[in-house]
Amino acid sequence: MLGQRTIRKILSKVLVLFAFTYISIFIFSIPYGYSWEIIDGRFVSTYPLYMIFKRCNSTFISLLELNLGYNIKGKALNKVLFTSFMRTALLLSSSIVLAFVLGVFKGISDSNRGNKNNVFAKILISVIPISIPDVLIAAIMQSFAIWLNQRDIHIFKVAGAGTLAHSFLPIISLSILPAFYIARITSLEVNDCYKKAYVLTALGKGCSSKRVLWNHVMRNAIKSIIEGLPNITSMIISNTLIVEYMFSYPGLTTLLMDHIAIADRRSSAIIIVFIGSFYFILNGLYRCISTLFNRSNRREAV
Amino acid sequence: MMPLLKVENLQVSFPWKNKSVKAVDGVSFDVPHKKIIALVGESGSGKSVTALSVMGLIAYEGGKIEGGEIIFDGQEILRMKEKRLSKIRGKDVAMIYQDPMASLNPGISVGDQIRESLLIHKIASRKESKQIALNLMREVGIPDADQRYGSLPASFSGGMRQRIMIAMAISCRPKLLIADEPTTALDVSLQADIMNTLQELKNKIGMSILLITHDLGLVAQHADNVVVMYCGKVMEESPVDKLFEEPLHPYTIGLMNCIPRIDVTQDQLFYIPGCVPSIYDYPMGCRFHNRCSKVKPICREKMPKLINLNDDRKVRCWLYQ
Amino acid sequence: MNEIVKVVNLKKYFEIYDVKSKEKKYVKAVDGISFTINVGETLGLVGESGSGKTTTGKMILNLMKPTSGDIFLEGKSIKNLNKKEMRSLRKDIQVVFQNPYAALDPKMTIRDILIEPLSIHKIVSKYEYNNEVKRLLNMVGLSEKDMNKFPYEFSGGQRQRIGIAKAIAVKPKFIICDEPVSALDVSVQSQILNLLCELQRDLKISYLFIAHGLSVIRHVSDKVAIMYLGNIVEYGDAKSVFDYGAHPYTKALISSAPIPDPKRKNNGIILKGEVPSPINIPEGCPFHPRCKDAIEICKNKKPFLRKIKEDHMAACHLI
Fold first, then answer.
1. Which pLDDT value is given to residue A296?
2. Which chain C residues have a beta carbon less than 8 Å from that of B192?
3. Where is the ABC transporter domain (chain C) (predicted)?
4. Which end of chain B, N or C, is more open, meaning fewer C-beta atoms within 10 Å of its C-beta?
């Protein structure tokens, strides 16, 4: 299934990743107060170089074994990091899916769907919400949940230990801002597609407006929408920090905050790397999905 | 016998700044059963707007119907509700467009696009419609129909794409086919082929064709009747042999004279002086008067009416009134 | 020297990588063509899409480097010219494009558009600019009142006139007209064609007229070259080619052009099949899959241009 060229590409990317990781670990392994001088033509340093390399290698190998060592308090990192990673992954993936669904539907309703009349107000409605800070959204959601709870409607959990019920509110509040972005992209793409000539052809065949929208326009618009998703990845990941904090959701970023609070450099660095990996995982997923859509095109273009 | 299509005093306007401009200003003509009627005109004549109005698509393009009526197969379709119109569109009247590349959906396979009309109008089930679509592809001359059923439009050449459009349009055996400049975007060697295919299909299905073009050569070779339009109005309407033998309207005469001929060498080409007036700035009186070689004082003041000369010829010119 | 442009065995191959068969293939856009244009003469280059006529025009303008072959302008080869020499040569060759709506900068007034070539090539001094612009506008049939207008205020035919004025501003010896009337209305086409012929007579300019409309070519050209898939299949005096078309492709093209006379129905020779893509040019004669008279040798051996009459050559085994 994967051609030779693709394998070569993947291997080169993995190699670059390893080299980068090694260099970062090396830099991390340099202890405090390290300095060097050249005395009488000889290289003299406060810490022997080979020791640094030894430290670096041991860390690198333990990384390859996926043994992340211990944090400053003596707890094994592996398990706790793994569970937090999964929780944040659940949070991110659910909110992206929810944002996509909400955003596409809102975008379709925002677009003018072929009507040539100017709808300027609608554009404003989709632009203004993007400027609302996520903190405000999270705070409002939290207050709303507390208000419901005070009236004995316990559908939303205000706090918890990372259970599924606990994750509902964070998922909703995390998905709101990306939903508006996606709505904006969707409405622009849908408007663009409606200007094309094939919509007239479809209408000329007697297609109802519903059929034109779903069978003709959305088929072409979805491709472009998915191509626009990588732009919001960084926004979503940074908002995760806020949301997890506000709802006390025990995800990866909460773990990071805890470790920074106890000044554990090493563990913090490792957690940061894992948070960053979300970026690559998400973007890679978007690329796979869009090639899936495009493969049907590429197969036929001689 | 009632004509298949009767366009009566059609008036269509488009909004412009705070006012509106009339793209079609009182156009009337008939399309009898099983004939090819050519709608001839240059840019700005209103022929495409007329075609879209017959299809009921002019509102989608932003046009407003100011007056007139269109009677197709006994029914008034100009003011018909969209729901009822969409049952007629694609089934009884179909259209093929000028640019086949842009007019086909790039993301849907060719076969699915051809059979879509059959499914919408509930003429066949999903399985049957695939067979019918394959037959249609063979009918219009697309080679290897079985293999190419699932291909996307991008993998076909220009001539093939136009054939796909034709297959799409005739899938429900319409009574009227509107062909909007079907060969303009194609190479010369394909034009004759496409036109011949259309002629054969017309005879086979028994449909009429409303051929919109600016190419008088095409008109001479394929049309039965000709309607000449200029600046939103009909200038002349006549059977094709009488039109070429003895054109009446000075515009028609001018058009015929300025075509370079392939069979004759000419020294200097005849030309119509001036240019087509802009839609925002039509002259008073007859819209052609400032380019007409036979202009009279009355032409500058009053618009002539379209009158019947003999039985089958109509002309709008003060020379004949 | 009577020859303005001479093209010798010009070839342009584009390299592509075919993903399916995983090998390098060549798109033979232009596959060995030669022709000559004399002073004050018009060569009509006829061909369909994919025939290579636009690529040929671009190579003559030095916008594209040929893969092999040579182009001579007034006897000098343009192959190894340096930038300075090429710049001064650009004064002698100009272009008129197909789309009058796209060829003019919409932000510049007509005056600015016409002054630009005058100032680059220093045709006249600064103080003479206005007079020169007036002169050019009058020559193409526009008035000096139009000098300060913008392109959007003009119709298609008028814009094409401005494009022509721009081309003749530098007093060129040779103009390439790339489908200059295809985008215009019929009643305007003849005006522009007459203008081009007039300018040729008055200013002694030679034209390379690229088009796919045969009747237009017949009217303006002295000589005609018919291209098919990158090869010239017929070449010679225009009247001779159109009256006694020898190559089967020429005959098919001529017969398929609709005659505006309902009594004379085209008994067009319909070419079967589609134009093959320039990636897979057939073996032997490139036209043989669509030729109804093809014989065995046509499939194997590529025919070369042979003299049929005085000033009339064709590349076909059947003649």
1. 58
2. 256, 258, 266, 268, 270
3. 5-254
4. N
Tell the residue number behind the tokens 């060592």, with chain if given: A69
Dig out the tokens for A110 from the structure: 């925002």
Beta pairing class for B75-76 and B19-31: unpaired
- The tens digit of pLDDT for each residue in C295-316 reads 888 888 888 888 888 889 999 8
Q: Which residues of B touch A197 (CB under 8 A)?
A: 97, 99, 102-103
The answer to whether residue B43 neighbours chain C at the CB level (below 8 Å) is yes
The string of pLDDT tens digits covering residues A227-244 is 888 888 888 888 898 888
Is residue C176's pLDDT more than 90?
A: yes
Backbone angles phi, psi at C41, to 5 degrees: -115, 160
Establish how many alpha carbons lie within 13 A of residue A175's alpha carbon, considering only the half-sphere containing its beta carbon.
Answer: 21
Which overall architecture, per CATH, does domain A85-298 show? Answer: Orthogonal Bundle (1.10)
- Model confidence pLDDT, tens digit, residues B121-172: 988 888 999 999 999 999 888 888 888 888 889 888 888 899 999 999 999 9
Cβ contact C260–B214 (<8 Å): no
**CA atoms of C71 and C74, how far apart (whole Å):** 10
What pLDDT is stored for residue A228 in this prediction?
A: 86
Q: Which domains does chain B have, with CATH numbers?
A: 5-82+177-185+213-320 (3.40.50.300)
Closest residue in C to B279 (Cα) is C155
From A206, A215, A301, residue closest to B87, measured CB to CB = A206
Segments of chain B scoring below 50 in pLDDT: none
Identify whether the C-beta of residue A248 lies closer than 8 Å to the C-beta of residue A159. yes
Residue A122 to residue A188: CA distance in whole angstroms = 12
Three-class SS string for chain B? CCCCEEEEEEEEEEEECCEEEEEEEEEEEEECCCCEEEEECCCCCCHHHHHHHHHCCCCCCCCEEEEEEEEECCEECCCCCHHHHHHHECCCEEEECCCHHHHCCCCCCHHHHHHHHHHHCCCCCHHHHHHHHHHHHHHHCCCCHHHHCCCCHHHCCHHHHHHHHHHHHHCCCCCEEEEECCCCCCCHHHHHHHHHHHHHHHHHHCCEEEEEECCHHHHHHHCCEEEEEECCEEEEEEEHHHHHHCCCCHHHHHHHHCCCCCCCCCCCCCCCCCCCCCCCCCCCCCCCHHHCCCCCHHHHCCCCCCEEECCCEEECCHHHC
Strand, coil or helix: what is C136?
A: helix
User: Which whole-number Å values give the CA distances from A164 to A19, A85, A154, A156, B168, in the listed order?
Assistant: 38, 15, 14, 11, 52
Residue B95 is nearest to which of A204, A207, A300, comparing CB atoms? A204
The answer, for A37 touching chain B at a CB cutoff of 8 Å, is no
What is the token pair recorded at A210?
Answer: 């519903």
Give the CA diameter of chain B: 67
Q: What is the DSSP letter of C6?
A: E
Q: Which amino acid is at B282?
A: Y
Nearest to A207 among B55, B97, B120 (CB): B120
B264: phi > 0 → left, psi -120 to 50 → alpha, else beta; which? beta
Q: Which CATH class is domain C3-92+173-314?
A: alpha beta
What value does the mean pLDDT take over residues C189-201? Answer: 89
Test B154 with A114 for CB contact under 8 angstroms: no
Q: Is C29 helix (H, G, I), strand (E, B) or coil?
A: strand
How far apart are the C-alpha atoms of C31 and C21, rounded to whole Å?
23
Nearest to C169 by CA among C206, C195, C132: C132
Angle at CA B260, nearest 5°, toward B255 and B262?
135
Instruction: Work out the pLDDT band at A158, boundaries 50, 70, 90.
Output: low
Confirm whether pTM is higher than 0.90. no
Token look-up 């003429």 returns B123
> Does residue C89 have a pLDDT over 60?
yes
Per-residue pLDDT, C317: 87
Contact status, residue C253 vs residue C215, Cβ threshold 8 Å? no
